[in-house]
Amino acid sequence: MIPESFIQDLLARVDVVDVVGRYVQLRKGGANLLGLCPFHNEKSPSFTVSPTKQFYHCFGCGAHGSAITFLIEHTGASFPEAVRTLAGSVGLAVPEEDRRSPQQRAESARRKEEVSRHTQALDTAQSYYLKQLRASAPAIRYLKQRGLTGEIAAQFGLGWSGTDRQGLMQVFPRYDDPVLVESGLVIESEDGRRYDRFRERIMFPIRNARGALIGFGGRIIGKGEPKYLNSPETPVFSKGQELYGLWEARQAIRLEGQVIVVEGYMDVVGLAQLGIGNAVATLGTATTPDHVKKLLRASDKVIFSFDGDKAGRRAAWRALQACLPLLRDDITLRFLFLPDEHDPDSYVREFGAEAFRACMAEAPALSRFLLDELGQRHNLAEAEGRAACLHEAKPLIAMIPPCALRIQIERELARQVQLTPEEMTLIMAQQAKPQPYGAPADGAQPARAAEARAASAAEPRPAPQGAAGEQGAVAEDGTPSFEVPGYLDGDFDGALYDYEPIPDMGTEPPGGGNPPGQGQGWQPRKQGGGGGFGKGQGKGKGGWRRENEVGGVIEPRRPVPTLAKRLLQLLLSHPELVDTMGDQQLEVIDRGPHLGMVRDLIVLAQSSGARHLGALLEAADPESDIHLVLRSMSADVLGQEELPHPQAEWEDALHRIEFDSLRAEMAELAKGGLKEAADRERYQELSQRCAILKRA
C-alpha cells in the first residue's frame, strides 16, 4: 500500500494542468483552462482544469478528479500505476506501506501470483496463435474472403489455433502444468489425457479495460459446432462482465460519441474494417447489468444492434431489462433491428457505412422499444388487454430509478392504456408500496394525519412560565421571571436547521426569507463580493448524482443542510482556512446541528495534509460520506469566485453557529420556567454572550 502522506506530497509537486495538457489541448479561460473533454464527444469545450484548485471537471459528462484520477480514467492505468507514472515524472521513488495482516498479505500475494501465471500462459499462447496464422494458408484465405486485411488482423491480434490436438505442447514444455487447464487453454479428460481447447479456429484475443489479455474466443472456419467457442470462466475472465473489442474501440468510441453493441466477434472486426471502429460484442451470453455499466462508462450513448428475427428480439428484450435499473436522464440507449438476411457486417458491405449510420440514427429509443413491445403483446383494443399490458409493465417501470425519463415513460404508457397521469401515478405507487391486507385505502391515512395536525394547530399553546413579564418580575408561584429576548421568539419544537430538498441542496425555502428555524435576530457583517451566511443567501447548483454507478440520482447517506454546504464551499474554495483551525473552533462546530461533515472535512485536511479539492478526493475513503460530498460539490467549487475576506466570512459563520446553539439552550431554560437559581444564572450568562455576538 502506498502511504497517504506520499500521495499528498506527490499531488503537491505535480501540476494537473501539465498532466492533462499532455492529452488535451487547453486554452486560457479566466482563472481556469478549457478544452474538449477526452471522456465524451463534444464540439464546444466544457472540460475545465483549475490550476489553483488542482483538479479537472467536465460540465458535460461530470468527469472530475485529480491528476491521478485523470491518468486512471484516460489511460486505463491502475491506481499504483498512475502514482508511479506521476512520481517518475517528478523524480520521486514510490515507497510501499503494508498494514494488512499476515494472512491478508499471503492471500494477496497468492492472488497476484495466480493472475501473473495465468497472464503469462495466455500471452505465450497468443504468440503461438499469431505464429500459426502466418503459416496457415487456409486461415489467411478465410480472413481475406471475409474482407479483412492484414492491418485489421494485426490491430485485433487475430491468430490461428492450428489443427494439432496438442499444438500448445510446442510452447509449453510442461504440458501437464495445472495452469494450462485453469486458464482454459487445455482440457483434461476424465482419463487424465489432455488436449488443446481450441483447434481449427480463428483466434480472437479478449482484453479487459486495461488492455490485459484475459481469454480467447475462437471461430471455426469449417464445419463443426459450436461456431464460436470462448475461454471458460477463470480467475481472470468472466463472460458476463467482459465485452469483446472494448479496448480496441476506446478511441473510436470517444470520437464517434457512441458505442455499438453487436452479437459476434466477426461483426466487430468486420465493421472496423469498413470504417466503423466503435463496435463491441458480448461474449456469447445475454447482455448483463455489468455489460451495461461498462458500456455507459465508455459512452453516454449506446446502440444495441440485433437481428430482426424472433431470437434477435428476445435478446434485445433481455438487454432492455438489464438496462432498466441503470437508466439516467443524461444517457441514450437505442435498439437497432436489421433485416433478417443481414448482420451489421453484411449490411455495411451491401449498403455502405453511411447507410448503417443512418439506420443507427433512426433506431428506436429504449422507451419506444419498451412501449411498442408491450403493446404488441396485448390487445389494447380491450380493457382486459390494456390491464394485462399495465400489469406486465409495472414491475419493469419500477426497476427504473427515479428520474425524468421514468416519468415520461409512465405518461406514455398511461396514454397507451387509456389512463390519466394521476391514475398512473396512483397505480405505480401501489406497485412500489403495496398496502397490507386490511389497511385503509390510499389517502385515508394522510387525510387523517392532516386533520390531526389541523386540530393540534387550533389548540392554544401554553406560554412558558415567566416568559411574559418584565425582566426581574415574579411569577405567580413566587419564582423570578425573565423576559425572553427578541431573538428567542419562535417555535422551538423544530430543528434549528432543516434538511433541504435533494438534489438541489442550496435552494431558498419557498417564499424566500430565512431557512426553516433560523432566527430573525442574527445579522452577520457584510463583505463586498462575499457569499455570506445571512438570510436569503446560499443559492447553489450541485446535486447528489454519481455517474458510472447504477444510474439515477443517489441520495447521500447523510443529507447536507444549507449552512453545512456553505461552510464546505468556503473551506474548499479557501483551503488556507484549515491552517487556522484549533480545538476551540472545532468545539464551536460541534455545537451546530448537522455540521459533522464540516468537521470531517477539517479533520481530513489536517490529518492528510491535503488542501486542494483534487488532493482531498484522493485522501478520502471512496465509500465515505465526505467523498460523496466532495464529488457532488466539485462543479460548484470550480465556478465559485474567491472571496475578498474569507477569514471574516468564516468567523461570521462560527459566530452564527455559536449564537444559535446559545439561543437553543436559552429556549430550553425558558421552557422550564427558570425556577432554579443555577438555571437563572446560566440564562443570564448565555444572554450576555448572545448580546456580545450580536455586536461582533
From TrEMBL:
A zinc finger (CHC2-type) spans 37-61. Residues 257-339 form the Toprim domain. Signal peptide: none annotated. GO terms for cellular component: cytoplasm; DNA-directed RNA polymerase complex; primosome complex. It holds the Pfam family Toprim_4. Its EC number is 2.7.7.101. Residues 96-117 have a biased composition (Basic and acidic residues). CDD domains: TOPRIM_DnaG_primases (cd03364). This is DNA primase. It comes from the Bacteria. GO terms for biological process: DNA replication, synthesis of primer. Belongs to the DnaG primase family. It catalyses: ssDNA + n NTP = ssDNA/pppN(pN)n-1 hybrid + (n-1) diphosphate. Monomer. Interacts with DnaB. Binds 1 zinc ion per monomer. RNA polymerase that catalyzes the synthesis of short RNA molecules used as primers for DNA polymerase during DNA replication. One of its GO terms (molecular function) is DNA-directed RNA polymerase activity. Keywords: DNA replication, DNA-binding, DNA-directed RNA polymerase, Magnesium, Metal-binding, Nucleotidyltransferase, Primosome, Transcription, Transferase, Zinc, Zinc-finger. Residues 509-520, 527-541 have a biased composition (Gly residues). It comes from Achromobacter aloeverae. Residues 94-119, 434-556 are annotated as: Disordered. Transmembrane segments: none annotated. Contains an N-terminal zinc-binding domain, a central core domain that contains the primase activity, and a C-terminal DnaB-binding domain. Its cofactor is Zn(2+).
